[in-house]
Design goal:
Layout (H helix, E strand, L loop, with lengths): L1 H8 L6 H47 L6 E3 L2 E2 H12 L3 H10 L9
Antiparallel strand pairs: 1-2
Helix pairs in contact: 3-4
Amino acid sequence: TMINMEESSGLKFMNMDQYNLMVHEINSVTKKKAFAKSLLEESSADIEKMDADMNQYRQELEKFCPPCLWSKGQLCSGRVKFLRNQYGVPRHIAKLSAMSQGSCRNPAM
């Protein structure tokens, strides 16, 4: 009988509908895996780009010199304080802004 053949061979026999369903499931998992892999690669590339950008900004912020004269008697630190108070921008944005305008001796980027 079929049960004896399955037991003696160590195999499980199935009908074509079951087989086709399993093949379909395997194919859909393979497609999902490929899609997930492409998302992972894209995300990894984005993370590498963000790391490079962060390193560039860190290097630029290291150039910030608070006691330097920014413009017309105002120090760079004073300009940062003004930008933060007036516009509510984060400290690092204010520093980069101050360094990119006026007569800053250590211009950003």
